[in-house]
Design a protein that fits this description.
The protein is 24% helix and 44% strand. The chain is α+β, with helices and mostly antiparallel strands. The protein is globular, with a radius of gyration of 15 Å. It starts with a strand and ends with a strand.
C-alpha cells in the first residue's frame, strides 16, 4: 500500500486518537522538510538547564528532515531554533522529557532515541507493533510537503 499524507493531517489524527504529544502546537510540510512548532511550557518534566531556557524562549521551531529509513528505523535530522537562536545542540537535554512522553503514550522504551548529533532515531517498526500490530513500513520519505510511506498489512 502507498500512503501519502500531510504532516498536519497526521497531527490531527493523533489528536483525535489522543496520541498527540501536547507540546506540539503545529506541523506543516514544506518540500522535504517538516516544520514543527512546540510550546515547551507544556512539558511536565524538564531538566534544570531546559527550565531556564523555556523561561527565556518557550516556543521553539524545528525543521525536521528524514535523513534515512533503514530496517524500520527513521533517522531524523533536526534543526531547532528558539527566539531566533540555534538550539539544536541542546536537543540531547530533551532526551529524558521525550522518553517520559513516549512512556506516557504507552509506547515501548527505546522507540525514540535522541542522538548527540541533533538526530532522532525513531524505531517505526516497534512503534507500529505497539499501536498497529500487523502494519509494516518498508519505505518512507518526505516530498512535496507530504509524508510518503510504503507499507503492508499482514
Amino acid at each position: 500500500m502507498h500512503i501519502r499524507i500531510a504532516p498536519e493531517e497526521v497531527l490531527s489524527l493523533a489528536r483525535i486518537a489522543k496520541q498527540a504529544p501536547p507540546v506540539i502546537s503545529s506541523v506543516v510540510g514544506d518540500g522535504d522538510v517538516i516544520r514543527v512548532v512546540a510550546d515547551l511550557r507544556r512539558v511536565e518534566a524538564l531538566p534544570g538547564p531546559l527550565k531556564l531556557a523555556v523561561k527565556i524562549a518557550p516556543i521553539v521551531r524545528a525543521d525536521v528532515k528524514l535523513a534515512s529509513f533503514e530496517r524500520g528505523v527513521a533517522t531524523l535530522a533536526v534543526e531547532v531554533n528558539a527566539a531566533g537562536l540555534p538550539a539544536h545542540r541542546l536537543l540531547s537535554l530533551a532526551a529524558a522529557p521525550i522518553e517520559h512522553e513516549v512512556a506516557k503514550q504507552g509506547l515501548p522504551p527505546g522507540v525514540v532515541d535522541v542522538q548527540p548529533d541533533a538526530r532522532i532515531a525513531v524505531d517505526v517498526e516497534r512503534l507500529l507493533e505497539a499501536k498497529f500490530p500487523g502494519v509494516t513500513v518498508t519505505g518512507a520519505k518526505v516530498e512535496g510537503g507530504q509524508i510518503v510511506l510504503d507499507a503492508s498489512v499482514a
